[in-house]
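Sequence only, no structure available. Ideas?
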Amino acid sequence: MPNLNFAEAFSLSLRSNVVQFRKGWIIAIIAIVLVVAVYLVFNLVRGISYYNRGIVYYVKGQYDQAISEFTKSIEINPKHAKAYFNRGLAYAKKGLYDQAISDYDKALEISPGDTKAYLSRGAIYCDVKGEYDLAILDFTKAIEIKPRYAEAYYNRGVAYKAKGQYDEAISDYSKAIEIKPEYANAYRNRGSLYYKKYMYDQAISDYSKALEINPKDTAAYNNRGMAYYRKGEYDKAWEDVHKAQALGNQVRPGFLNDLREASGREK
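Reply:
I predicted one. Tokens follow.
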């Protein structure tokens, strides 16, 4: 076997070292990737764990703890739209409506198709802030995304009613009922608008349907009694007054006085 000269030996040694270096470099990269992957998976699991605990606390009515857990989840995953949404629900339960709106905003920024976030934000605009036009925009957006969203139609009807746009409200309540035929509140609210429009037969029909679905709806008994009073059907009015009172409803004294005078009865 011929002897290698120095240059050849050095070249072979160098190539061997390069091969070993490359192997070590590849192993190091694989190790780093594995460490990062394990860290990311661990963090993901932690984030999900915080989120799930937040849900449990929310269901139990422990809203401060729920907010804390959702916040931890968001710190780990700032793009967790559901964590923002549910933290917004918890803020709303505590009466912290501006914080709730902020979280709904963030949820919608991350997930623009979240119809529940539009509905929840719209409900605060409508029921708390009195910003009915903003509420209508949110409910309309939810309907555009989910055309058979009964709750969005119902809530938009509430906003239209608050603005005095009764025909639009009736239309939305009717759509909510078409989608969800057992929607007792939609029947009752539509009945109240028929009453305001002096359409007492339609009002009575809606109140009766609401009571068929929910026999303990004291407001529906009270309202139907007033509609019967307007039609001069005083005995039926008294029947509804008695049913409302039996369920613990405080019937308006002015209405009772008017009914006593018109019917010639004390009760």
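The CA atoms of residues 36 and 218 lie 61 Å apart.
Hope that gets you unstuck.
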